[in-house]
Amino acid sequence: MGFRCGIVGLPNVGKSTIFNALTAAAIDAANYPFCTIEPNVGIVPVPDERLDRLADLVHTRSKVPTQMEFVDIAGLVRGASRGEGLGNQFLGHIRQVDAIVHVIRCFEDENIVHVDGSVDPLRDREVINTELILADLDTVDRRLLKTRNQAKSGDSKMIAQVAFLEQVRDILDGGRPARSVAAGDRAQPDLLRELCLLTAKPVLYVANVHEDDLEGGNRFVDLLREAAAAEQSPVVVIAGSIEQELSRLSRDEQAEFLAEMGLAEPGLNRLIRAGYELLDLITFFTVGEKETKAWTIQRGTRAPGAAGKIHSDFERGFIRAEVITYDDYIACGSEARAREKGLMRSEGRDYVVRDGDCILFRFNV
Q1: Under a CB-based contact definition with an 8 Å cutoff, are residues 205 and 235 in contact?
Q2: pLDDT digit string (tens) for 169-202?
Q3: What is the C-alpha to C-alpha distance for residues 361 and 346, in angstroms, rounded to an integer?
Q4: Dihedral (Cα; 245, 248, 252, 256), 10-degree rounding
Q5: Of 17, 14, 11, 15, which Cα lies nearest the Cα of 247?
Q6: For residue range 223-270, what is the model confidence (pLDDT) as tens digits?
Q7: Distance, CA of 255 to CA of 246 (rounded, Å)
Q8: DSSP type of residue 352
Q9: Calpha distance 57→159 (Å, rounded)
């Protein structure tokens, strides 16, 4: 799998409620089994109606969704970058994820005390972002000290790295995330990846609201949307209380509950898909009576790389990929019919796999 989203947030914002709903397999639990591999880590299926339709079409015996991993990262408080609240330990956990899901409280409730005494999504967002930036500044400063010493020899590579690190430091010192560098000057992509900066990771904001504000939002959500838009980060609005209730219900009860609430699907479905899109991932399918399976790859992956997701032998001995688009597969009703109509294409090593491709890989090892 290899794609991990870390869920962060201040205390009492609903972060654990949302994570616990995920771990309860609230997303169509009968068909998408959830597996907890650590107390705070969960593997969650990515809901995809295309997989369901393909599996039904070929009467497959086993249907396997693609998955994402969510990590509940506790302990982030003001001062985390200096070790407050076990900050060093939990900041280390964030370094291991591919993207950050930042849960922000956008509801008022006198029975749930806010750690700072009042509800203010912009302040809460700033607290977490500041701690991540401060931690990154410490990382860059330590690397800069080492690299400056190496550059004294006149090594052009080290001199270039010093210039880049100084640029990154200036951005962080100005209160901006390292993503600003990643989106612009990529002169040192290897060094940027090696630094594993927290603020270089893409961010998805989750506005946790009361169920009454789920459809129309509220002033807190509006403020968060505006701030997130400035950094080109998405916002997903979720009512944690609804997701918690859904997680306790059977599949049929969930459907009835959603209908009563006037909702098309659980909010967690939207959260999972948004995380998938945030990481710029796409899905291709392998389809058969024995097994129909969804596979996750980065957008832009070529056919041999996609084959390698199934097995390294597929990539090493890649010959060709026989491809049917999802729409063509559904329209034809079977692989054989698509082949008869000339809708199964033979693609070589340079083919860039597209979202929804149904692929049969030919290989020889």
Answers
A1: yes
A2: 999 999 999 988 755 565 677 888 888 898 999 9
A3: 10
A4: -20
A5: 17
A6: 999 999 998 999 999 998 898 888 888 888 988 998 888 888 888 888
A7: 9
A8: B
A9: 60
DSSP letter string, 252-304:
HHHHHHHHHHT-SS-HHHHHHHHHHHHTTEEEEEE--SS-EEEEEEETT-BHH
Instruction: Give me the long-range contacts of 340-347 (CB less than 8 A, separation at least 24).
Output: 346/320, 346/321, 346/322, 347/303, 347/320, 347/321, 347/322, 347/323
CA-derived radius of gyration, the chain:
23
State the number of CA atoms in the 13 A half-sphere of 115 facing the CB.
17
Global pTM?
Answer: 0.83
Give the three-class secondary structure for 349.
coil
pLDDT, greater one: 264 or 328: 328
Which helix (H) or strand (E) segment holds residue 247: the answer is helix 240-247
Q: How far is CA 82 from CA 87, 136, 169, 298, in A?
A: 7, 12, 18, 35
Could you tell me if 283 and 67 are in contact, meaning their C-beta atoms sit under 8 angstroms apart? no
Q: Alpha carbon 303 to chain centroid distance?
A: 23
User: Could you identify the residue written with the tokens 């901006």?
Assistant: 176
Can you tell me the distance from the alpha carbon of 81 to that of 59, in angstroms, rounded to the nearest whole number?
53
Joined together, the tokens standing for residue 110 give: 């006198």
